[in-house]
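User: I'm putting together a small comparison set for a docking exercise, and I want a reference complex before I start. The sequence is below, and the ligand is nicotinamide-adenine-dinucleotide. Could you produce the 3D structure with the ligand included, as structure tokens?
Assistant: Of course. I'll restate your input first, then give the structure tokens for the complex.
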Amino acid sequence: MGLLSGKRALVVGVANKRSIAWGIARTFAEEGAELALTYQHERFRENLEKLVPELPQGATMLPLDVGDDASLAALRDSLTSQWGKVDIVVHSVAFARTEDLQTRFVELPREGYALAQDISAYSLVALTRAILPLMQAAGGGSVVTMTYLGGERVVPSYNVMGVAKAALEASMRYLAWDCGADNIRVNAISAGPLRTLASSAVKAASALRDVPERTPLQRNIVLEDVGRAATFLCSDWAQNITGQVLYVDAGFHIMGV
Ligand SMILES: NC(=O)c1ccc[n+]([C@@H]2O[C@H](COP(=O)([O-])OP(=O)(O)OC[C@H]3O[C@@H](n4cnc5c(N)ncnc54)[C@H](O)[C@@H]3O)[C@@H](O)[C@H]2O)c1
């Protein structure tokens, strides 16, 4: 028996083997969860097809564009017919145009700001709403999203994504309040910098990865750290934890210098 035995988990955000969502999926599988993984487009579907056989019990693979309500509805319909209930939703998604990350913040155009907000923050609301009836059918659920310190403090060059993470964390708290009556918990993990496709677009991420001595534990985190934290938050052991940001950053966020 694992911590998540008997639970059905939807994991959104696997692009490749470095994805935080993949680290979470692997730990979920080790802890007994049944998995559905989504892919954003064809190239990522091919990546998933190579990765899924590494999971002891495989996984259902479904397409999803979080910026498209029809795609979210189709995902809900597929999961309704295949599972009928969902216990866990992992939202591990972010997007901003490269030029909007690289420009001076004061020069950020309106459409770049709106796009980052839509895909990186509003999508948590849209995804939770789409899967809500399936979590209600399960008698409750746990939603976990991925954030970063740049949403609460200034991390130079995180720019538009920092503002999106601030909105994501606030959305997480309002969802925790709104969905609490359905026994649905909503939390965020604030991860330290990891080398992934998304983080390669952020100049600050590589700079921070190179200075583990600035963290209390004097090391960088690894994918498994995030997988284990997400497993805890989605397990019954965390049954009265909601609306929280859990830092998985080797302690970096407590530092003042
Ligand atoms: N890597 C880090 O250092 C770090 C640190 C803290 C938080 N995070 C956050 O973790 C999450 C996952 O990022 P990652 O670092 O694993 O990178 P990643 O590139 O592996 O994952 C990002 C995912 O977002 C998905 N995505 C983007 N737009 C989408 C859309 N319209 N519809 C569906 N999916 C879409 C991509 O397909 C990809 O799977 C992000 O929210 C990121 O901000 C990352």
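The radius of gyration is 17 Å. The mean pLDDT is 96.
User: Thanks, that's exactly what I needed.
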